[in-house]
Amino acid sequence: MVLHRMARSGIRLGTLVERAAARHPANVLVLDHDLDVAPHLGRRTTVAEVADLVADLASRLWAAGVRPGDRVVVHKSNSLDITLLAFAAARAGAVPVLLSAQLDGDTVLRLLRRAERPFLVTDQDKLDRELPPPVFEEAEEVLVVRGSYPRAIGLESLAGAERIAPVATAPHRPALITHTSGTTGVPKLAVHTGVTQQIRYLLQVSALAPVVPRRETIAIHASFVHSRMISVLAIALLRGLPMLVLADEDPERAAEHFARMRPGIVEAHPNSFMAWEAMADDPRRPLANVKLFSSTFDALHPRTVHRMLGASRRRAPLFGQMYGQTETGPVVCRGFTRRRSRSADGRCVGFPFVGTTAVRVVGRDGRPPSARTPGFIEVRSKGHFVTYLGEQERHDGQLSADGWWRTGDVGYRTRWGCVHLLDREVDVIEEFGSTLDAEDRLLTGVTDLTEVVIVRGADGLAVPVVCTKDDRPLDEAAWRAAAAALPPMAPPVHWREDELPKTATMKIKRFELARILAERQSDAA
Q1: First and final C-alpha spacing in the chain
Q2: Which of 523, 488, 507, 383 has its CA nearest to residue 11?
Q3: What is the distance between the alpha carbons of residues 220 and 261, in angstroms, rounded to a whole number?
């Protein structure tokens, strides 16, 4: 296919911003935060200035000893400069390894060991508060982005280093390492090549271009350590789209930026869109100009899709949803319009990309997959990652002899081929049905809910953990009405939303939530 031929050169992370600057040097990048590596740039800059910064950072990394083929772990406070440092490491021929700022110090130490003496780029706050002292023994060098620190190299001290030419990396060689969500334990390190990243980028461009053929401002709130951030930035940079990049998902602050910049495209995590539902009622109409809402990672609740589309004043806005994994990239996609009912099936995630991705559903216990008896979702993707770093056997264990990757999700396909995602395999509560579908129904029926997560209780009964607007008491009458058509559940447990354990992409850590819930119930007994 043409797409695969286009992917042969790889995404070339090291020169991505430079190539974008050659096309659109004055294109604007607006941030809601300062860059730790370059606070002097402020919160409004140009692509040409960002390209110069990436080249400067690459030269500093080279002066610190980074060489082609080295691994450079970036683990610092949350900021777009995490992604820019990845571009800089790639420009020096190294392989960036991106670790979320939300990971605890012990987990980071374990991942550092798996990366086998990489360079570590971090900051003083992480070293003072979170990272254990052994990181200095596990890293080739520790570099701090600002100031100085004992036993570390300060990147600021290397300012003015002689500029290096970009180092070309073979397209089928490792180009980027990101980690999985870690919802059930220590994250795995997924190795991507230039080609696999380019295929993911091209898939998303092919889905975007027909919907938004002209130049629009794009607002982005995505994890700076996720491969999705690489793809969406590449789209914005190479197409010359003015960019608003948010580190903070706070609805009020996000609304202020949206009201000022009037984005035509909004890219965010599903949970961020849920948090932004309040924008639909904002008198400033911050979402009025949005032509395309875009999300990957997971299916969105129908209520959230309905609220977002209803807030747009564009003639025919679209909510584009992709389903995939860190390991596979986007696998299926589907668009939703205002015609979609609030009570529509939220488990429908879409159709594969013809010629590039494929999906099959394998029955469990010999039963054919259906809504009542979901099967294992398995996929093939041209954008499939290479391996889990240091865990080849783990990778091979999820890959069948004929090349199908078991996602760990369960669901089924309709007679038309649409993929329905019902649950994570580890979250299935037997005889309950889809917990995700039940959550959709509860969110639609109880307007004050901002989040509901159904987990397995210690006695095997489904336990709904609920969060409400402004932590108001749950509307029990509305709850009973919405839950009446669902299988039996324990009484809802009311938590504050900031208590919920989340991943870097804002997914709820259901396994961790169930563990915490069991501990609290045990202590109360």
Answers
A1: 62
A2: 383
A3: 12
User: Using an 8 Å Cβ cutoff, are 419 and 351 in contact?
Assistant: yes
DSSP letter at 502?
A: B
> From CA 264, how far away is CA 289, in angstroms rounded?
5
DSSP 369: P
Please state the rounded mean pLDDT for residues 375-404.
93
Comparing 44-53, 163-172, 424-433, which segment has the lowest mean pLDDT?
424-433
Q: Please report how many Cα atoms fall inside a 13 Å half-sphere around the Cα of residue 366, on the Cβ side.
A: 0
User: 462 and 439 in contact (C-beta within 8 Å)?
Assistant: no
CA dihedral sign of residues 26, 31, 37, 39: positive
Q: How far is residue 165 CA from its own chain's centroid?
A: 31
Q: Are 119 and 88 in contact (CB under 8 A)?
A: no
Is residue 239 within 8 Å of residue 368, measured between CB atoms?
no
- CA 126 vs CA 35, 72, 104, 149, 208: distances in Å: 16, 16, 10, 11, 37
- Residue 498 burial (CB < 10 Å; 0-12/13-18/19+)? exposed
- Mean residue pLDDT of the chain comes to 92
Closest C-alpha to 169, from 95, 238, 232: 95
Answer whether 79's CB lies under 8 Å from 229's CB. no
384: which 2 tokens? 């499939």
CA distance 363 to 476: 38
Neighbours of 97 (CB within 10 A): 29
The CA distance from 280 to 309, in Å, is 9
Pairing of the two strands 142-144 and 119-122:
parallel
- Rounded Cα distance between 68 and 60, Å, is 14
Cα dihedral value 205, 209, 213, 217, nearest 10: -40
The angle subtended at Cα 390 by Cα 388 and Cα 392, nearest 5°, is 55
Q: What are the C-alpha distances in Å from 424 to residues 181, 415, 429, 455, 505?
A: 13, 22, 10, 11, 16
Q: Assess contact for 504 and 269: CB atoms under 8 A.
A: no
Q: What is the DSSP letter of 278?
A: G
3-state secondary structure of 521: helix
Identify whether the C-beta of residue 323 lies closer than 8 Å to the C-beta of residue 331: yes
Q: Are 217 and 265 in contact (CB under 8 A)?
A: yes
Residue 253 confidence (pLDDT): 96
Amino acid at 136: F
| Partners of residue 381 on adjacent β-strands | 357
Length of the chain as a residue count: 525
Is residue 478 within 8 Å of residue 447, measured between CB atoms?
yes
pLDDT at 4 over 90: no
Q: Can you tell me which residue has the tokens 């109360």?
A: 524
Task: Determine the Cα–Cα distance for residues 79 and 31; give it in Å rounded to an integer.
Answer: 9
